[in-house]
Amino acid sequence: MDERDWLAARFEENRTHLRAVAYRMLGSFSEADDAVQESWLRLSRSDVSGVGNLSGWLTTVVARVCLNMLRSRRARSEDLLGVRLPEEIVDDAGEIDPEQEALMADSVGLALLVVLETLAPAERVAFVLHDMFDLPYDEIAPVVGRSPDAARQLASRGRRRVHGTATIPAADLARQRAVVGAFLAASRSGNFEALLTLLDPDVVLHADRVAVRLGASAEVRGAAAVAGTFSGRARAAQLALVNGVAGAMWATGGQPRVVFGFTITGGKITAIDMLADPERLRQLDLIVLNG
């Protein structure tokens, strides 16, 4: 086995761990995969002959990549509102991978993802590395470009916000409710043009596997296609708080059957997540609102 094959084998041993780190920092499996791939590229270009703990080295590399991605996201100054429903982990055969799903889902419920989105990039990285992966502050410090004491303060600030603050400011929640309420009204009335005005041109609708079994498409892309999917429908859907942010739900007999999460950027809906898995629905904090 040559050196590159050896590195590739060691990297694959760490891939699940690295994806878990990246997902907790980024809140998106697709972005987490991008970060993991970038960490492999950096490994393949680096001389790690003197690295005693390759797993730790890779963890810090993927953390730096995620920090850059978070800073880039913040620099775009997007008015990003909404809730990102947890994504399923599917293997190459299209089957759910229970081991990876359990790893990813551990301590990463909807509520925590929402709070993590409110943290500054360095706070988020420091908090995730220390509180979720037990990295010491002297190893976190070079990742965030601070001293160990400063890294400790970053993690502490993140911890206080995670455990003790409101996740969504009232003004943002009011804007969420207005957009989601208008979307539901346009859907019920079949107002296709109104739906188009609320949807970003590149909006994506994702449905989980249970929703797909109920007849939904796994993925729908583009404003016209998503508007067509909802036009004249969603008649029984109600405006709701989904773990503290504006969303929608359809319930029968007092039991939620389908929950919709919305990502809103600059007043436009950029993503809709349709969740119907009963186990996941039981994990959500749902409050029906008056429209």
Characterise the protein shown here.
55% of the residues lie in helices and 17% in strands. It folds into two domains: 3-77 and 119-164, Up-down Bundle (Butyryl-CoA Dehydrogenase, subunit A, domain 3); 170-288, Roll (Nuclear Transport Factor 2, Chain: A), CATH 3.10.450. The chain has 13 helices and eight strands. A hairpin with a 2-residue loop joins strand 6 and strand 7. By secondary structure, the protein is α+β, with helices and mostly antiparallel strands. It is elongated, with a radius of gyration of 20 Å. It has helices at 3-26, 29-44, 54-75, 98-105, 110-116, 121-132, 137-144, 148-164, 170-189, 192-198, 209-213, 223-230, 278-282, and strands spanning 80-82, 199-207, 219-221, 238-242, 245-252, 255-265, 268-275, 286-288. Strands 1, 2, 3, 4, 5, 6, 7 and 8 form an eight-stranded mixed β-sheet that branches.
Short description:
The chain is an alpha+beta fold and 291 residues long. It contains 13 helices and eight strands. It has helices spanning 3-26, 29-44, 54-75, 98-105, 110-116, 121-132, 137-144, 148-164, 170-189, 192-198, 209-213, 223-230, 278-282, and strands at residues 80-82, 199-207, 219-221, 238-242, 245-252, 255-265, 268-275, 286-288.
> What is the ordering of alpha helices and beta strands?
HHHEHHHHHHHEHEHEEEEHE
User: What is the CATH topology of the largest domain?
Assistant: Butyryl-CoA Dehydrogenase, subunit A, domain 3
Which structural class is indicated by helix and strand composition?
alpha+beta
Total helical segments: 13
Question: Strand-residue fraction?
Answer: 15-25%
Q: Looking at the structure, what is the overall shape?
A: elongated
Q: How far do the termini sit from each other?
A: 63 Å
CATH fourth-tier homologous superfamily of the largest domain: PhyR, sigma-like (SL) domain
Number of domains: 2
- CATH architecture tag of the largest domain: Up-down Bundle
Name of the CATH class of the largest domain: Mainly Alpha
Q: Tell me the total number of β-strands.
A: 8
Summarize model confidence as the mean pLDDT.
Answer: 81
Low-confidence stretches: 77-84, 88-94, 102-108
